[in-house]
Amino acid sequence: MSSDTTLTKAPAAPDDLPVHADELPIVPQRRLGQWTAAAAVLVLLGLSVTSVLRNRAFQWDVVADYFTSDSVLRGLWLTLWLTAVVMVLGFALGTLLAAARLSANPVLRAVSWGYVWLFRSIPILVQLLLWFNIGALYPHLFGVRTVDLFTPIAVAIIGLTLHEAAYAAEVVRGGILSVDRGQVEAAQALGLSRWRRWWRIVLPQAMRAIVPPAGNMLIGTLKGTSIVSVIAVQDLLFSVQLVYHRTYQVIPLLMVATVWYTVVTSVLSVGQYYVEKRYARGTGAAR
Amino acid sequence: MSVMVDIRSVHKSFGPLEVLKGIDLSVRAGEVTVVLGPSGSGKSTLLRTINHLEKVDRGAVSVDGTLIGYRRVGDRLHELPEREVLKQRTRIGFVFQNFHLFPHLTVVENVVEAPVSALKRPREQAVRDARRLLERVGLADKADAYPKQLSGGQQQRVAIARALALEPKLLLFDEPTSALDPELVGEVLDVIRDLARQGTTMIVVTHEIGFAREVADTVVFMADGRIVEQGPPGQVLDAPREERTRAFLSKVL
């Protein structure tokens, strides 16, 4: 019971160890706290799941009806390609910005820094609304009415890409900085051209540091595109909103969108795992 | 014998710190020059100016009669475009202290990279040459391994094979054994010794005095950005004339 056995008294004779100490069985500590915590979490989880399944207001039959309806699938398709376009353009611009930021040219460095500062400062919603109303500043561009040029979908692509590029620039820059400076020197000493150094030596190694945050950004962008519903671009969210404004089945239709976003996110996470493996070549320890 | 490397009054500063304070050195073709000196003496910087990894502030370096990094027009030195410098570098092999192998490429891909992309060799021929070079450094069986799977000594031998793949006229070694565990130093020095025997022109910055004594034709002792003395190893190592040299040798021997 008491704990003051050895510390306060003179040390007792050391435990006599048997010759075959390896035969002494080891009794693991009881981890009571762990078991209690696990049980509590499981109970709460079970309650939540049954509550969701048994609450008729979710109207799972309605969810099933609309899940693969034409308008929802059209919205999903727009969400998917908008995400893809924004990612590709955003990272292309972001890579240029990162290259500018790391260049020896002070003007390029400053402009790149300024870009990232500006576009990270403006909330994407504010930016979309600004582009949407750009006609107020410039009624005519290239001899065309600005409102005809800046359609909702064009505004969505421009706004999201400019926003994405600011973050992509930082991700790519971080990746490049993670590559040992000696790699570039070795490539220079071997006479490899600037282009070759970049594509063959630096970028593949930078990808290891770029892919995880880029995967994060991809998933963030997928969900972030739902913001374009405010300028009436018919993405996944806007498509279900169109339905529930008509039928008032708000919750089941939001569940349709929720499940679709979850499905696509899961697929992307699996893809990221394989991409990461691809760029981990040569990082293992000795065989 | 003809002069392979000619270094004339080379000066180099990093900010306020003058690292090279007027270096004159000439290296004959087929000879091994070992550069010794305490750390911070400028020996690595000097080596790096020879293939223009480091630009000089004043002075000039020529290799095999060609000015490195500049073109002389009248009394002026014009900086060469990067493309030209890269071409010059393909004739000068450089081996780094920390190997700097490309970790995402296999051993053979490391060796093949420069011949294929800088010299435009056909890939199959480059691979055949690379395998022969790997055999020469005793690593034929590691061709398809990744650098991380090799010991430090093996990595450095791959780095030497990679430098040799360009068939350089001159090989520069920047402390090639300083990053190695003591028991791995020998295998790398063996390869360098072997190259010396075959008459490769080399400049080796190192702390291995025994190696210098055995392999060097000329030993150069540097301190504080200057060459303090130079001569055959028997003279510089065993009967140094300068007090600085004696002090250094008494510490490392």
UniProtKB/TrEMBL annotation, chain A:
Subcellular location: Cell membrane
Domain ABC transmembrane type-1: 76-269
Bilayer topology term: Multi-pass membrane protein
A molecular function (GO) term: transmembrane transporter activity
Chain segments annotated as transmembrane: 32-54, 75-100, 112-132, 226-244, 250-271
Swiss-Prot/TrEMBL keywords: Amino-acid transport, Cell membrane, Membrane, Transmembrane, Transmembrane helix, Transport
Superkingdom of this protein's organism: Bacteria
Alphabetized InterPro entries for the sequence: AA_ABC_transptr_permease_3TM (IPR010065), ArtM/GltK/GlnP/TcyL/YhdX-like (IPR043429), MetI-like (IPR000515), MetI-like_sf (IPR035906)
Gene Ontology BP terms: amino acid transport
Any one GO cellular component localisation term in the record: ATP-binding cassette (ABC) transporter complex
Family of the protein in this entry: Belongs to the binding-protein-dependent transport system permease family.
Protein name, entry field: Amino acid ABC transporter permease
Record lineage: Bacteria, Bacillati, Actinomycetota, Actinomycetes, Kitasatosporales
TrEMBL record, chain B:
Principal subcellular localisation of the protein: membrane
Presence of keyword Endoplasmic reticulum: no
Catalytic activity line of the entry: a polar amino acid(out) + ATP + H2O = a polar amino acid(in) + ADP + phosphate + H(+)
A matching Pfam family: ABC_tran
EC numbers on record: 7.4.2.1
Coiled-coil ranges (or none): none
Subcellular localization, as worded in the UniProt entry: Cell membrane
InterPro entries: AAA+_ATPase, ABC_ATPase_HisP-typ, ABC_transporter-like_ATP-bd, ABC_transporter-like_CS, MetN_ABC_transporter-like, P-loop_NTPase
Domain of life of the source: Bacteria
Any one GO molecular function term: ATP binding
Keyword Nucleotide-binding: yes
Keywords: ATP-binding, Cell membrane, Membrane, Nucleotide-binding, Transport
Broad class of enzyme this protein falls into: translocase
SMART domains: AAA (SM00382)
The name this protein goes by in its record: ABC-type polar-amino-acid transporter
Organism from which the protein derives: Streptomyces galbus
